[in-house]
Amino acid sequence: MIAQKAFNFRRRQPEETSIRSFVGFVIILVTSISIYMIRPESQNVTDYTNNNTIFMVWNFKDNLEIGDSFNQLCKLVINLNNSANVRFPVSRASCVMGIGHDAWLRLNLPNPLPKELVNFTPITGIKHTAVASRGDLHFHIRADTTSICYDMAAAISAILDPAATGIEEVHGFRYWDSRSILGFVDGTENPQGQDRDFFAIVGDDDSMYKGGSYLFVQKYIHDLAAWKRLSVEEQEKVIGRYKPNDIEMADDVKPANSHITLANVGDDLKIVRDNMPFGKMSTNEMGTYFIAYASTFSTVQKMLTNMFIGSPTGNYDRILDFSTAKTGSLFFVPTFDMLDVFSN
Questions:
Q1: Residue 135 sits in the same domain as residue 20
Q2: In a domain, 47, yes or no
Q3: 291 in a domain, yes or no?
C-alpha cells in the first residue's frame, strides 16, 4: 500500500510541475503587463546634449488625407530609434517627434487631449514679445555625427513631403564646451540624473499620457554686433554668470534683470533644455534654438512670463535686448507605446 502511494505521488509530480510552471508564467506575464502599463516607454526626451542636431517643423497641407502619412511616420520614428541603437550604439543618436494641438485634433488622436496641450499664444511685454507660430509636427534629431542626422531627416522628409510643408529646419552644433554663440555656457541649470525624468516626463497627474512630455521651442536670432560692443563685465551682468568659468554671480552682485535671475523660477520648477547654436556667418544670422522638455507646460509659461513681462512687471530679461524670438510653438511628445498605437 505504501509503495502504491509512493507510486501515485511520483505519477502526479509532472502534472504538479506543469501547473506550477503555468502559474509562474501567468504571474510573470501579469507582472510584465503591469510594469508596461505603469512605466510606458518615453521617447528620448531626457538624453543629454549631443554634438549635432537637426530641428524640423512641418505643417500639414490643407484639404488632404494625412492619416496614412502620419501612420507611416509613427512607424518610421520607432524604427529610426531602434535602428540607431543597434547600428550606432555609442552615437547617442535619437529622433523625438512632437505633435501640435491642431494637428492632434485633425488626426483624431485620443480625446481628452493632454491636459496642457494648447496653441501657444504670444506673451507681450513692454518692449519684447514671445511670438507664437504654427507647428503641426516637430522633430528633434541628434547624434554625434552629421551623417546620422542627415539620413534621419531625409527619411522623415520623404514620408511627409506629399502631405506637409517643412517650414523650419535648423542645423545646430555643439560650440566649444556647450557655449551659446554669445560665449556663455548654456544649460548649466539643467537637471541631472533621475531628476531629468522627474522634471521632463508627465507623471500620474495626467495618467492617460504618463510618460509623455511637453515640448516648447523658440528660434532666437542674436544681435551679435550690439552684443560685442559690451565689455565682458557688462555681458556677465546680462547673463548673471562669469564668462570664463561659468560660475554664477552672488545674489548681492547679480542684477535683478539678469537672465539667470528671471529664467530660474525655483528649484521645484525646472525643465530639461537641449539648446543648440546655429548660424550663417556670411549673413550674420546667428542664433540659439531654444528647446525645452517639461512635465508641465505651466513651468515654461511661468519662465517666459518672467523673461518677457518681467518680475516685477517691467523688469524684463536683459538678454532680450540682444536676442529676438522669431518663433514659438508648443507640442506634445507621445510615448513610443502611443506611437505604436497611432501607427496602426
A1: no
A2: no
A3: yes
Of residues 144, 151, 161, 186, which has the active-site annotation?
Answer: 186
* Position 265 in a domain: yes
* pLDDT 10s digits, 306-337: 999 999 999 999 999 999 999 999 999 999 99
**Residue 303: which of 246, 275, 333, 261 has the closest Cα?**
261
Q: Of the candidates 199, 204, 219, 169, which has an alpha carbon nearest to the alpha carbon of residue 293?
A: 199
Q: Is 186 a catalytic residue?
A: yes
Encode pLDDT of 264-293 as tens digits: 999 999 999 999 999 988 888 899 999 999
136 and 28, same domain (yes or no): no
Query: Which residues span the domain enclosing 109?
Result: 52-342
pLDDT digits (tens, 9 = 90+) for 186-208: 999 999 999 999 999 999 999 99
Q: Could you tell me which of 214, 281, 287 has the C-alpha nearest to residue 42? A: 214
- Give the CA distances from residue 29 to residues 79, 247, 335, in Å, rounded to whole numbers and listed in that order: 25, 51, 22
- Which cell is 311 given? 518680475
Q: Is there a single domain that holds both residue 92 and residue 195? A: yes
Q: Looking at the domain assignment, is residue 336 inside a domain?
A: yes
- pTM for the full model? 0.88
- Residue 31 identity (one-letter amino acid): T
**Residue range 141-151: average pLDDT?**
97
- The 3-state secondary structure of the chain reads CHHHHHHHHHHHHHHHHHHHHHHHHHHHHHHHHHHHHHCCCCCCCCCCCCCEEEEEEEEECCCCCCHHHHHHHHHHHHHHHHHHHHHCCCCCCEEEEEECHHHHHHCCCCCCCCCCCCCCCCEECCCCEECCCCCCEEEEEEECCHHHHHHHHHHHHHHHCCCEEEEEEEEEECCCCCECCCCCECCCCCCCCCHHHHHHCCCHHHHHHCCCEEEEEEEEEECHHHHHCCCHHHHHHHHCECCCCCCECCCCCCCCCCHHHHHCCCCCCCCEECCEEEEEHHHCEEEEEEEEEECCHHHHHHHHHHHHCCCCCCCCCHHHHCEEECCCEEEEECCHHHHHHHCC
How many angstroms separate the CA atoms of 74 and 338, rounded? 9
